[in-house]
Design goal:
alpha+beta, Chemotaxis protein chec
Length: 199
């Protein structure tokens, strides 16, 4: 089952509310003026994910977070290397070329990813009245297909790509949020969206 245009529009609305809350939380917690925009939300097949990044050989920076409850799956915030470095540099005040920056990347991106994913998934769960629990954030580096691999039945996962633009200290940075749902959970998500809109 794929998203209809109406379902996709409703999901975009939920994502945009969550991203707005994430930006407000980041501004408060990190004491930096951060703007987040979502230019695109679309469904992907697992085999299509490799086409999302420009350079398939590059190691990406990724923060993963599992979610459980009425919907089960995994969310991941993924940055290409230049955006990861520039974002951490902007948030920590460290020079992007400083040798010590590598040691700050994991911790800083873990915090950012935890806030963004919790706000996006938490907002979806709250508005749809389906509370969710979360695992601890996990920072990884690697190629996209391996970073988002959940198990042997990945072909059956329903994947939603949320392209995200970060603006920090006038620097424009790109990241992608991947929301991966178990097939049954995705059907439950669509049903919950329909029930809310039917009220």
């Amino acid at each position: 089952m794929n998203l209809t245009e109406l379902q996709l529009d409703a999901f975009k609305e939920l994502v945009n509310i969550g991203v707005g809350r994430a930006a407000a939380s980041l501004n408060d917690m990190l004491d930096s003026h951060i703007m987040l925009e979502v230019p695109e939300v679309r469904m992907l097949d697992f085999d299509d994910m490799t086409g999302v990044t420009d350079n398939l050989a590059q190691d990406l920076s990724c923060v993963q977070l599992g979610f459980y409850g009425s919907f089960t799956g995994m969310a991941a915030l993924v940055f290409p290397p230049p955006s990861a470095v520039q974002l951490v540099s902007a948030l920590t005040g460290e020079d992007a070329t400083a040798p010590g920056l590598d040691g700050l990347i994991a911790g800083t991106l873990n915090e950012v990813g935890n806030i963004v994913i919790n706000c996006v998934i938490g907002t979806i769960g709250n508005i749809l009245e389906r509370p969710l629990d979360f695992s601890l954030p996990n920072y990884l580096q690697g190629q996209l297909g391996e970073l988002l691999k959940m198990g042997d039945d990945d072909q059956r996962k329903k994947i939603i790509l949320v392209r995200t633009h970060f603006t920090v200290l006038e620097k424009q940075l790109d990241g992608n949020i991947f929301l991966m749902f178990e097939a049954a959970s995705f059907d439950a998500l669509l049903l919950a969206i329909e029930q809310i809109h039917a009220r």
